[in-house]
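User: What would this chain look like folded?
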Amino acid sequence: MDSNVSDPESSQARRGFVSELEREHGRALRRFLSARLRNASVDISDVFQEIFLRLLRVKNHESIRNPQAYLYTVASHVLQQHSMKHSADPATEFDANVHAGTAMDPSEETELQQIMNDFGRALEDLSPRAYATLVMYRCEGMTLEEIGKRLGVSRPMARKYLLRAIAFSDRYIEQQDRL
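Assistant: Here's the prediction, encoded as structure tokens.
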């Protein structure tokens, strides 16, 4: 089969992968976006749609080991590009337009995916509550009070879990930078 011809089965599998991500993480992703776009005059639905359109373009979705981490990585990239695009500084806006037209190099994308997968595996060393706190705070945009209620702990204890997770993440990143 010619590699330039779109494989209907592959396309259907990608759509299924993206649909599953939206079903499992869509509500949390919307909270994540709304927490970061509070002061922006942008429709969250447009940003949400852009994220999933980019996911539909991923050719080898089977190799993604941590779909949730990949989803939030794509979301962060979309938010960053959106922020640059809507900057008041014309020079920054020019840079955003230049970069928006440039797709990420596949080798860089693969390397980023591997880094995210490695980090996801490293996070498994955290206690379950510290890990859950980090996910709820960073990915779902929950407050410490909400996290405490969900975990059945006080706000100060939820804060301790979050600080442990952040310290762990910082140590991991420092170790990677030394390699």
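Residues 1-5, 88-102 have pLDDT under 50 and may be disordered. If you want, I can go into more detail on any region.
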